[in-house]
């Protein structure tokens, strides 16, 4: 071969180069897709965590927490995709309960997206009217 005929790339070299660039681009796009999916999942969890805190604060402030479980949705906050349930769990100490609020997807209420827990003391009911005679 003369030096004039070896100035460019061969067809095999070009094909190998294109395949390597294609593999690199595919890997980069998959990584970007995975990163985007992780971002969406984290944003959803953060949003549900905020909903859980806000709902538990509301339930405690309005006195809706008793000793029985309650549940509902967030339709009053314009969120129709999520639901919540509050578990009231005895702690083993008299009048002390663990409150566990779970936020779930409305279609999948078994798997919590966000969960928040706190303790609540319920003073015992007294049998006296409180007057000293």
UniProtKB/TrEMBL annotation:
Domain of life, source organism: Bacteria
Keywords associated with the record: Membrane, Transmembrane, Transmembrane helix
InterPro entries: N_methyl_site, Pilin-like
TM segment ranges: 6-29
Listed Pfam families: N_methyl
Protein's name in the database: Prepilin-type N-terminal cleavage/methylation domain-containing protein
Native source species: Fimbriimonas ginsengisoli
């Amino acid at each position: 071969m003369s030096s004039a005929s070896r100035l460019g790339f061969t067809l095999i070299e070009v094909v190998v180069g294109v395949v390597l660039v294609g593999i690199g681009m595919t890997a980069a796009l998959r990584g970007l897709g995975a990163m985007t999916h992780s971002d969406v999942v984290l944003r959803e969890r953060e949003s549900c965590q905020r909903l859980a805190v806000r709902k538990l604060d509301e339930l405690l402030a309005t006195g809706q927490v008793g000793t029985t479980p309650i549940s509902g949705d967030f339709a009053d906050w314009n969120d129709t995709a999520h639901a919540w349930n509050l578990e009231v769990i005895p702690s083993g100490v008299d009048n002390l309960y663990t409150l566990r609020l779970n936020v779930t997807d409305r279609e999948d209420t078994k798997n919590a997206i966000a969960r928040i827990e706190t303790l609540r003391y319920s003073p015992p009911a007294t049998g006296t009217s409180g007057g000293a005679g």
